[in-house]
Amino acid sequence: MKKNYPLLVIAFCIFYGFKDQIDPLFKVPENWPKPVYDFKKNPLSEEKIFLGRTLFYDPVLSRDGTISCESCHLQYTAFTHIDHTTSHGIDGKIGNRNSPALMNLAWSRDLMWDGSVHHIDAQAISPIENPLEMDEKLSHVVSKLNHSKKYRGLFYRAYGDSTATGERTLKSLSQFLLTLVSCDSKYDRVMRHEEKFNEYEQKGYQLFKVNCAACHTEPLFTNGSFQNNGLEPDKFFKDGGRIKITGNKNDSLAFKVPTLRNIELSYPYMHDGRFKNLQMVLFHYTNNIYRTKTLSKHLKKEIVLNEQDKNNLIAFLKTLTDETFTRNPKFSYPQ
Q1: Is 95 left (phi over 0), alpha (psi -120 to 50) or beta?
Q2: HEC secondary structure over 93-110
Q3: Minimal CA–CA distance to 48: which of 181, 174, 180?
Q4: What pLDDT sits at residue 11?
Q5: How far is the C-alpha of 126 from the C-alpha of 124, rounded, in Å?
Q6: Which residue has the higher pLDDT, 84 or 62?
Q7: Tell me: domain 186-323, CATH 1.10.600.10, correct?
Q8: Distance CA 153, CA 160 (A)
Q9: Domain spans of the chain, in order of start
Q10: Residue 17 banded pLDDT, cuts 50, 70, 90
Q11: Which pTM does this prediction carry?
């Protein structure tokens, strides 16, 4: 029986108009920028996407078969976790960062909170070989896959022979991740002139454009940059952010600007999950900025919001929730 492969026609967005066709299975929503991912170097196929989807949900990637990608990236919470501040890995070990939500990754040039991964095709190595996450070696993962009848069949259908390799494994995972496109929130429908914001959402949208859009730029709701957003350094993790990667003192306490799409679902917030709700996030930006030399230039000026402003802004942020994304069966556990 033919599997129901997750065709990358961008869940439900197929009906809403596109511009450039980048790949036969990947179309860019109208008025979105061109993806940074080079699909010519890893052309999508239904079979490779399904293989990557299967790997994403399989704890075979971890040392003892207990942790999968999905362990920290659950679909119904926009492919992140919400039950603890930072990620939990093998043997109950606790990581030092909150797992990022996974969506619209074809537009991401640098990955991870500190930009330590520069290409999505190599991203999976990081959690696989991190001793606090999966604590495995890619070479051993490949060995396990080659000894699996199921995976020999999946690799054969995807690549024309049954041999699993590290490159094939990583590129298949990235193909599935590339399918995770969120573009059908109420915000998107308003932009397509199919719906209208209510009074509070409209006021919140105006506040957003004045106070937030410099970093959380539409339509992706991130500009992909690294910013010091005024968080006081955590005394336990002592996480310096991007400076650990670049060695540049100007990158001290800078972290990647996350997308705000599906932000209603992806709590707790910030790189260390310190804020449980959006009210706490807004309190931080209006009342609790930790000022250092590397503070983002966009936060040098005080943000002034009264309680009604905050409620309106949150009302707008909730319009970024995309249920067709979080409920799409083509992104769920493969049957």
Answers
A1: beta
A2: CECCCCCCCCCCHHHCCC
A3: 174
A4: 41
A5: 5
A6: 62
A7: no
A8: 10
A9: 13-182+324-331, 186-323
A10: very low
A11: 0.91
